[in-house]
Amino acid sequence: MTVTQDLSIISLIAEASILVQLVMALLAGLSVMSWYWIFRKRFQIRQARIATDNFERDFWSGGDLNKLYDSASRGQAEGMERIFEAGYREFTKLRAKGHDHGATLDGARRAMRATYQREVDDLEAHLAFLASVGSVSPYIGLLGTVWGIMNSFRGLASVGSATLAQVAPGIAEALVATAIGLFAAIPAVVAYNRFAHDIDRVGIRFESFMEEFSNILQRNLR
């Protein structure tokens, strides 16, 4: 009479060695954290695009710069609007102090550049974590797989003749670690590449606005 072994995923995880279970738990934790940041970053980048679209519409509609600045300084400015606020605040402050045109324009540009860097850094926050999960998770899973297979073959050392039924459960539970590693890595890599592309496009829009707004400020100095 042959005994059929349960090869379900749950039973394979429950019967795995302690080290393999720790590897699986670590990978599961990394997967949960990466999915958390995937949803957070997706929402954040989407909000940044919407805020940029809205501000560009208001800015290029021909509205008064002072009114736009008052609105930005009173509300919760973000992204391009915050860049505009920083540049226009520095511009008006330096012009009121009687600085020459070159120093006034350079000061406004530096203020916009500093704010631009902070905005882009905020958008890029935690992208490095997704990149690390995507690159490291398969190797962590492979560690669990190698250890599990080593345990399987060590267990067969005392057996006179090894059969597939004896080898299969140990190898299967070891391969689960690789599967979990890939499950953690693939979404993180895809999300990282997508978010990096989206942030680059938002950053290009910020830089284009800074150049165009600098030209407007230069004309106002004449």
UniProtKB/TrEMBL annotation:
The Tol-Pal system is composed of five core proteins: the inner membrane proteins TolA, TolQ and TolR, the periplasmic protein TolB and the outer membrane protein Pal. They form a network linking the inner and outer membranes and the peptidoglycan layer. The keyword Cell division applies. It comes from the Bacteria. It is found in: Cell inner membrane; Cell membrane. Belongs to the ExbB/TolQ family. InterPro entries: ExbB/TolQ_transport (IPR050790), MotA_ExbB_proton_chnl (IPR002898), Tol-Pal_TolQ (IPR014163). It is a multi-pass membrane protein. Part of the Tol-Pal system, which plays a role in outer membrane invagination during cell division and is important for maintaining outer membrane integrity. The gene is tolQ. This is Tol-Pal system protein TolQ. The keyword Membrane applies. NCBIfam families: tolQ (TIGR02796). Keywords: Cell cycle, Cell division, Cell inner membrane, Cell membrane, Membrane, Transmembrane, Transmembrane helix. Pfam families: MotA_ExbB. The chain crosses the membrane at residues 18-39, 127-150, 170-192. Residues 79-206 form the MotA/TolQ/ExbB proton channel domain. The lineage of its organism: Bacteria, Pseudomonadati, Pseudomonadota, Betaproteobacteria, Rhodocyclales.
